[in-house]
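Re: [ENG-882] Designed sequences occasionally contain unexpected residues at chain ends

Forwarding the minimal case from QA. Structure tokens:
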């Protein structure tokens, strides 16, 4: 699933700094002081909310009787009459 927002150069630098710090075993607390951290955080939370809303809509769109599968082969079985 792709929910896209563009990121500013500063936000990308913050993400890169956090990832590099974590990969080296450190903590990302220094990144919180970066001026672009707040806007990056807001974007991530907005994307998270959109994903949750999309999942909720998908659940509501499902049929009450469940989902059906299409016939997987090219040949359908003939219908036999009863009686």
């Amino acid at each position: 699933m792709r929910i896209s927002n563009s990121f500013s150069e500063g936000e990308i630098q913050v993400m890169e700094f956090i990832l590099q710090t974590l990969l080296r075993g450190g903590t990302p607390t220094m990144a919180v002081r970066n001026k672009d951290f707040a806007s990056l955080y807001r974007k991530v939370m907005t994307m998270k909310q959109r994903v949750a809303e999309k999942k909720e809509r998908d659940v509501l769109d499902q049929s009450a009787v469940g989902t059906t599968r299409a016939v997987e082969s090219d040949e359908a079985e003939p219908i036999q009459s009863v009686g």
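QA comment: On inspection the terminal residues look reasonable. The chain has a mean pLDDT of 77. Proposing we downgrade this to a documentation issue.
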